[in-house]
Amino acid sequence: MKTVLFLYFLLNCVQYIYPYVFSSVEKCSYTDYKCLKRSFQKAVPLFTEGIPELGIERMDELVVHDKIYKLGGLDLTLKDARLKGLKTTVFDHVSIDTNKKMLFTSYHIVKCSMKGKYEGVGNIKVLPLRGSGEIFLKFRNVALSVNSTYVMENRNNKEYLIPKSYVFEYEVKDYAHFNMTNLFSGNEKLSNAVLTFLNENWRDVSKEFGKPIIEGQTKQIFDNVVKYLSNSPVTEIFLL
C-alpha cells in the first residue's frame, strides 16, 4: 500500500514539475511572427487530438454543446452535433503585442462539416422554416480572425500567458451547403423550396445566420487554448 501511495505521489510531482508541452513544436520569441506561425501550424494536428489529462477535448471531431441559437427570426436548437475538419486549419498570421497584451491570429479552415439533430421554428429571410430532424452543413475555406487579450499570471515563480477575452470575424469564402431533413413535417415541396433558397444564397445565409453558430464553436476552441496555456509556463513554449 505504501508503495502504491508513493508511486501516486511521484507521478503527481512529475506532472507538476514537467508541464504538458508539445516537445516537437519550435519555441519562438514573441516578436518572431514567422516562427510563431510555423509553431501554431505544427501544433494543429497535436492539439486537435485533445489532451485528456488537461481536460482538453478532442477537437476533430469536436462535440458541439447542445444549444438554442437565435438567428434573426429563427430559433434553431442543435443537439448531438459533431464538427469535423478542424485539422485542416491553416494559419495565415500569428503575432503578439506585449505592450497591449494582445494575441492576433488569422487562419482558414480548408473544409469542415457539421452534422447533428435540429429543431427549428421561425423565418430565414422571407421564408418560413419549421421542422425537426437531421441537419448537415458543409463549408469550404472558412476564414477567421481571432484577436484576444491576455494577462501574465505568476504561479510558483513561473509565468503563464492566460487569454482572457476575444473578438472574432469570419467569412465563408468558397462554398457552403445546407441540408435538413423533415422540414415542414416532410412536405417535400416546401422543404425543397427552403433548401434551394439556402443553397442558392449560401454566402448571404452564412454571413447573416452563421455567426452565432461559429461563435459557439470558437468559444469551445478558445476555452481549450486557455486550458493548455494555463498549464504551460511561457518558458516552456516561448524563447524569452
Protein model, in words:
The chain has 240 residues and is of the alpha+beta class. The chain contains six helices and seven strands. The chain has helices spanning 2-17, 33-47, 188-200, 202-209, 211-230, 234-237, and strands at 62-64, 67-71, 74-84, 89-97, 102-124, 127-155, 158-180. Strands 1, 2, 3, 4, 5, 6 and 7 form a seven-stranded antiparallel sheet that branches. The radius of gyration is 21 Å and the shape is elongated. The termini are far apart.
In short:
The protein is an alpha+beta fold. The protein has 6 helices and 7 strands, in the order ααβββββββαααα.
Highlighted features:
alpha+beta; 240 residues; elongated
Number of helices: 6
- The radius of gyration is 21 Å
| Global morphology | elongated
Strand content: 35-45%
Distance between the termini: 44 Å
Helical content (DSSP H or I, runs of 4+): 25-40%
Strand count: 7
> What's the SSE pattern?
HHEEEEEEEHHHH
Chain-averaged pLDDT: 87
Low-confidence region ranges:
1-19
Major sheet description: 7 strands, antiparallel
Structural class, by secondary structure, is alpha+beta
Please specify the SSE layout and strand pairing.
Elements: H1 2-17, H2 33-47, E1 62-64, E2 67-71, E3 74-84, E4 89-97, E5 102-124, E6 127-155, E7 158-180, H3 188-200, H4 202-209, H5 211-230, H6 234-237
Antiparallel strand pairs: 1-3, 2-3, 3-5, 4-5, 5-6, 6-7
